[in-house]
Amino acid sequence: MTATPAAAPLLEARGLSFRRQDEPVFAPMDFQLHAGELALVEGDNGSGKTTLLRMLAGLLHVGEGELRWRGAPLQRDATAGDILFLGHQLGLKADFSPRENLRVAASLHGCRDGTNAASVLARIGLRGYEDEPVRRLSAGQKKRAALARLLLLPATLWLLDEPYANLDRIGIALVNELLERHTDAGGAAMVTSHGTVSFHGGEPRRIRMHG
Ligand SMILES: Nc1ncnc2c1ncn2[C@@H]1O[C@H](COP(=O)(O)OP(=O)(O)OP(=O)(O)O)[C@@H](O)[C@H]1O
């Protein structure tokens, strides 16, 4: 992770909006996210939470407004590897094993210091499934295989769309622990969830979607 100027938010949105067929998906938004912060993105079904995260991840073009990263206009080339998106579609190759999927991800963005695929797969609860094709895993195990990227890759900002979906109680607690450790270490995260987020690392920032 590179150093951030003391006062500059990690991420800042100014008048950000998105249009489909010329209709705004959500009203223009302003928000800031600082290093060490967790933000919960809240809103009803269809209010634009996934759209917002996909836009922040660079998967959708910014409609109107501005995105700033570490105090300067966000340049996609400069943030590649620093922003990690985990969406409803998990981005796993079904014929590859969890280990092979991690290898592909790490070949693009490198690994956190002191981590490797075997250790993060054990940590995420996939010991014994490291070399199983992903298509043979359960929904929760697939989710864990995708979440393993959070432990392996050196991203600063995590964009997590429904990270608790399909997880059991232990998996949910694990996600909360990963979020706490990440924010404690100066990372940041934006999370959508229709369930209760029992995050113990202080009061999260709340970003409310309005149509
Ligand atoms: N690929 C698409 N093509 C056209 N419209 C879309 C597409 N994806 C989403 N939308 C529309 O954009 C709006 C916002 O959708 P989005 O998925 O961002 O909402 P959400 O808040 O994440 O919903 P949910 O809580 O149901 O996951 C919805 O009205 C939806 O119908």
Helix/strand layout:
Layout: E1 11-20, E2 23-33, E3 38-42, H1 49-56, E4 64-69, E5 72-73, H2 76-79, E6 83-86, H3 98-109, H4 117-123, H5 139-152, E7 157-161, H6 169-184, E8 188-192, E9 205-208
Helix pairs in contact: 3-5, 4-5
Bound molecules: adenosine-5'-triphosphate (ATP).
Characterise the protein shown here.
- This is Heme ABC transporter ATP-binding protein CcmA.
- Keywords: ATP-binding, Cytochrome c-type biogenesis, Membrane, Nucleotide-binding, Translocase, Transport.
- The protein is of the alpha/beta class and 211 residues long.
- Helices cover 29% and strands 25% of the residues.
- It has a 5-stranded parallel sheet with strand order 6-7-8-3-9, sandwiched between helices.
- Helix 4 crosses helix 5.
- The termini are far apart.
- The site of adenosine-5'-triphosphate has 10 residues, from helix 1.
Strand-residue fraction?
A: 15-25%
CATH topology of the largest domain: Rossmann fold
What's the helical proportion of residues?
25-40%
Rg from Cα: 17 Å
Instruction: Sum up the overall morphology in one term.
Output: globular
What structural class should be given to the helix and strand makeup?
A: alpha/beta
CATH class of the largest domain: Alpha Beta
Distance between the termini: 35 Å
Any low-confidence stretches, pLDDT <50, length ≥5? none
Number of helices: 6
The CATH architecture of the largest domain can be given as: 3-Layer(aba) Sandwich
- CATH superfamily annotation of the largest domain: P-loop containing nucleotide triphosphate hydrolases
How many domains, as an integer?
2
Largest sheet: 5 strands, parallel
Strand order of the largest sheet: 6-7-8-3-9
The molecules bound to the chains, other than polymers, are: adenosine-5'-triphosphate
Domain ABC transporter: 11-209
GO molecular function: ATP binding; ATP hydrolysis activity; transmembrane transporter activity
Protein name: Heme ABC transporter ATP-binding protein CcmA
Keywords: ATP-binding, Cytochrome c-type biogenesis, Membrane, Nucleotide-binding, Translocase, Transport
